[in-house]
Design goal:
Helix content is about 65%, strand content about 0%. It has eleven helices and no strands.
Length: about 220
């Protein structure tokens, strides 16, 4: 896809939701950090149900540290990988209290030193909590970027770099959310809704016409 086509692509997605945000519920950078950390192999709906109760008793690093690993586990046991997530959250809370004054750092390297926080999670925190123009490539963005030809890449890092290179600076702040929402609700993994797609004419996917026709019949 050319740079001009990529700009038209992201501009159309922007038209539907000029100021998008995550579907995870949070009110502070720490709550966002917790929610994103819990979202691996779990739905946003499931995470929101868990954090609704968890944040009532522990929504700061100090409170999470005091709740402890076992206490955290009781609130998140309905989520995938909850044992490991509880362990990571307890240790992350300890580090935030001991090394960052109980605040979430606005620094990629410091974020990635927290247990359970990789590049994708750090990008989400920097983007959503602090306004950085980072792009966190999840399964939805990876699929959309490769399927449509917007920014093909063999792995998430390659796709992230390709998106950074081709998307205009004015759109990078919210591109992460526009692409996730497009992948979650339109360009789905199974039976994508090509007939309803706002970027159908720009998409380079060879099978798009077949899916658009099957929806019309």
């Amino acid at each position: 896809m050319t740079a001009e086509e990529a700009e038209a692509f992201i501009a159309r997605l922007a038209e539907t939701d000029p100021a998008p945000t995550t579907e995870l519920n949070y009110s502070t950078p720490f709550e966002l950090l917790v929610a994103v950390s819990l979202s691996a192999q779990s739905t946003d709906v499931g995470v929101n149900k868990a954090t609704e109760k968890l944040f009532r008793v522990a929504n700061t690093p100090q409170a999470m540290l005091e709740l402890g690993e076992e206490g955290i586990r009781d609130y998140i046991r309905n989520l995938g990988l909850y044992n490991n997530k509880a362990k990571n959250l307890a240790e992350a809370a300890r580090i935030l209290v001991a090394e960052h004054g109980g605040e979430v750092p606005e620094d990629r390297a410091a974020l990635e030193r927290l247990p359970g926080v990789g590049r994708k999670t750090a990008n989400v925190i920097l983007n959503t909590a602090f306004g950085h123009p980072t792009i966190a490539v999840d399964t939805h963005i990876f699929r959309v970027s490769n399927r449509t030809g917007l920014a093909p890449g063999k792995n998430v890092t390659a796709v992230e770099r390709a998106l950074e290179a081709i998307l205009p600076a004015a759109y990078k702040r919210h591109a992460h959310h526009w692409l996730i929402l497009h992948g979650r609700y339109t360009c789905t993994a199974r039976r994508p809704k090509c007939a309803q797609c706002r970027v159908f004419d720009l998409c380079l996917w060879p099978e798009k016409a077949e899916y658009a026709e099957s929806a019309a019949s």
